Amino acid sequence: MNNLSILLVIIGLIFLLLAIAPAHKISCYRTGQALGWRVIYALILLFILGYSFFLHHLIFEPAGFVDTILSIILSSGGIFVFLVLRMSLSSIISLDTIAFEHEEQSLHDILTGLPNRKSLFITLDNTIDAQGRSEDAFAVMVMDLNGFKAVNDTLGHHVGDLVLQLISPRLKREIRSTDSLCRMGGDEFAVVLPQTDLEQAIVVAQKMIVACEESLMIEGHEVLLGISIGIAVYPQHGDTANRLIQVADVAMYHAKRSGSGVEVYRESYAQDFLLELSKPHQLQQAVVNNELVLYYQPILIASKLVGLEALLYWPTDAGILPAKDFMPLAERLGLSQKITSQIIDQALSKFSYWQKSYSFQLHFNIFIKDMASNEFIDSLQSELIKFSVPASRITLEMSEGLLHSCSKEIHHSLKQLDALGLTLAIDDFGNSGAGFMLLRDYPIKEIKLDRFFAKNFENEISSQGIVQAANMFCHHLDLSLIVDGVSTQAALDCLNTLGIDSYQGAALCPPLTAEEMDLWLADHYTEFK
């Protein structure tokens, strides 16, 4: 009986000794119950002392029935204490791990794995605090991808997600390990560059622009994007996290609007930005009130007037804005479909009058996103019937982005439009790197070169070579080529010398209102008939 009792107490004592380690770890955790766990830790030490005294008693005194029962209880108690403490420690570690993972998730973007907006502001606050002990400047960059919305609209959001996952490592490769790249949301990123002056930040920005220019291959589609970057420097442009992000965002907006790629914040940009803040409401009201107007510009081929392009303008207090200055905003506001409907209605209404006396085509631009819907094709057919305009008299111009990211739905719509007899054209060709080989899969009949190539055309040998090559390719592909933006007689003479006689621009006629175009046609149509 004695030996059994001694063995049971020793087992209980061993388990109590094993319980010391988890009890100590738990008592050291920085939790609200730390004091309670330390009391339990002290009690275990007292239990060990009590077990030791009872073991001494059993060794030197014969064990009775009560001693045996007590030995069983003490043995079970030691095992119980050990198991409870081990399980408690395991639970605390698991909860702590979950809390840590939750905290990490709250600070990181799930899609790209990059730090998120919340983490960005923590990093900025810490960097600003560190600057109190240092005289070094640091830079903040806010970046936005160019053309990302078109990818989402044409190829779907899942492809947009893949783009973000592929672009993120490219951006990260261009910064140091001490720098912090964050995804702020959507296609907007930010970078914190500690111990970096303005010149160094501009160098990093240029590297990122180059990194984003390389095409992406996603699900068989070649996607070309760009990036616009705004830079702010601490403390020159701001001394708080909110201020630095705000002014860098303003600079980024200016870079996107101007097409410069990268801009450093200036005070004058703030006023421009404040004006832009009022634009969304004003534009919505302009669309509701049908205030957008069409101007018209002639297109000539071989000295013959072959078409008028309907160009969209928005009359504002600040002046008349061309479409390029407000249509990106209209797309973000979801107004593109309504604007397209107004363009078609206004243009066809006027053209129904012109077609009775003149034989040229009517050109107007449509949005890729709107074209993908069956509603657009049905609506266009209805408008053509309403104004008695044959489809063969209409040319639809689409942006070059169509060639980079054409979904099955849009490809189907293009075939439907072609089957109706409409002429399909690519506008601003060459401004985003599309190649002629991309044209072979689409029912495109006309190419309009980006007006960039006509700028100072008579003095730019490289532009002349590009236009000549484009003309040759179009001839072999049985496509019409229009050189847009021909604004001077010198440029026009240069085109004629090169044997290119299809153009559009102020050298012939600037964009005119419908009433002004009536007068122009009355005076000049016979010259170009």
In short:
The chain is built from 19 helices and 17 strands. It is an alpha/beta fold and 529 residues long.
Keywords, please?
529 residues, alpha/beta, Alpha-Beta Plaits, TIM Barrel, 3 domains, 8-stranded mixed beta barrel, 5-stranded mixed sheet
Question: What can you see in these coordinates?
Answer:
It contains 19 helices and 17 strands. The longest helix is centred in the first third of the chain and has 43 residues. The protein starts with a helix and ends in a 5-residue tail after the last helix. Helix 1 packs antiparallel against helix 2, helix 1 runs parallel beside helix 3 and helix 12 runs parallel beside helix 14. The chain is 54% helix and 18% strand. The mean pLDDT is 84. The strands form 3 sheets. Strands 8-9-11-12-13-14-15-16 form an 8-stranded mixed beta barrel. Strands 2-3-1-6-7 form a 5-stranded mixed β-sheet, with helices on both faces. The chain has 3 domains: 106 residues; 161 residues, Alpha-Beta Plaits; 249 residues, TIM Barrel (Alpha-Beta Barrel), CATH 3.20.20.450. The chain is of the alpha/beta class.
